[in-house]
Amino acid sequence: MIPRMSATSDLLDRSLSAVWHPCTQMKRHETLPLVAIARGEGAWLYDFDGNRYLDTVSSWWVNLFGHCNPRINAALTDQLGKLEHVMLAGFTHEPVVLLSERLRDLAPAGLGHCFYGSDGASATEIALKMSAHFWRNSGKTQKSQFISLQNSYHGETLGALSVTDVALFRDAYGGLIKQNATVPSPDSRAAAAGESAEDFALRCATALETHLQQHHASIAAFIVEPLVQGAAGMAMYHPVYLKRARELCTKYGVHLIADEIAVGMGRTGTLFACEQAAIRPDFLLLSKGITGGYLPLSIVMTTDDVYRAFYADETARGFLHSHSYTGNPLACRAALATLDIFARDDVLNANRDKAAFFNRISQPLREHPKVGNFRNTGMIWAFEVDTPHADFAQRCFSLGLQRELLLRPMGNTLYFMPPYIMSADEMQLLVTRTLDIIAALT
Ligand SMILES: *Cc1c(COP(=O)(O)O)cnc(C)c1O
């Protein structure tokens, strides 16, 4: 491929020499140019040559209300004039208090304590440590194992990798990772012929029960991505699984950790995915969309029951975990501005209409002979493409850029996880051009 000849080629070269990009085999960039983004507005990203790209993946699932959203910008500008940061040990500030109270009021009842981290993986670490430490403080030191679903993804630090079941991310680091068991995923694509998604979810819950029956004495917690396993290729499943998981975790004395880092903040149609199963987990993890995609922040919400097990005179019984930027005021303020938009614009209802509209106009994709398992939950769409190209994801990404789309398939699974402000015209453009790309690659 020919390198882009433009004012940015200097920036691209310097990036390749000085920046080690994430989730990237850097050698690929010998042939695949980086894209240098100069600015963003709404659902669009603009490069230095004035080309634009529709951000159909919300910049790795974080952006909710568009780039450079005027309301979030205004809140941050205001906060910058007041307080950029203060340590959260021994000190507090208004944004972190307001955010904790608002989340307590919005989340399933009983999750009244917010612990702060810096990103999704740190929220996973916090929840795993807090769960195991809870059992230790309760005199059950043998409860130190965790279980997760097959194909689970909970982040890529070492503790989070121990409950992540994506071989590519794990294999090189296997020797460093604690071995935890997985239980069958209720991913409805794996249902038997003629079996409903609900029946399959119940069958998988039976497997969970068998595992818990045998091993509950050594298990601290079961961690799940409610309703959609994102990194597994947007694997969607029936909410009855979560209902049963909640009952079984209670029955066997195991914590339920709901990792809503990707699926929280309205992504599945309700503010929190757990609401669709009417359950309250013992830990609820938030990150990604919580700041509208502006700043890194994560939150672990938990119960009085967990909180009380740490409340004592001895320091060592307290929860021992800290990050320098814990509860950063700017990030909390961005989160408050994001929650304001949800409330003022009645976003969840508006999204229901948007999703219905997109389902109508994407009919040609759903019915395309080379498209399989077309599925939708809330503001997430995904399908598999029957393609002869082993490097489909790479080709699709490149063809997408040529057609003003940022598409980032996982294998032959193409998905859309758009910002909620995507307009009807932008949705139509997305469908039309995706059909073009599929025609070129099948
Ligand atoms: C992205 C993600 C994480 C990790 O978050 P980071 O901020 O990337 O560390 C954890 N769990 C789920 C479900 C995610 O989608």
Report on the structure:
The protein is an alpha/beta fold. It folds into two domains: 272 residues, Aspartate Aminotransferase, domain 2; 76 residues, no CATH class. 37% of the residues lie in helices and 16% in strands. The chain is built from 15 helices and 16 strands. Strands 4-12-11-10-7-5-6 form a seven-stranded mixed sheet, with helices on both faces. A hairpin with a 5-residue loop joins strand 8 and strand 9. Helix 8 packs parallel to helix 9. The chain is globular and about 60 Å long. The mean pLDDT is 96. Pyridoxal-5'-phosphate binds next to helix 5.
Task: Say which CATH homologous superfamily of the largest domain is assigned.
Answer: Type I PLP-dependent aspartate aminotransferase-like (Major domain)
Overall 3D shape: globular
Helix content: 25-40%
Radius of gyration: 22 Å
CATH arch. level architecture of the largest domain? 3-Layer(aba) Sandwich
Walk across the major sheet and give the strand order.
Answer: 4-12-11-10-7-5-6
Low-confidence stretches: none
**Structure annotation, total helices:** 15
Global mean pLDDT: 96
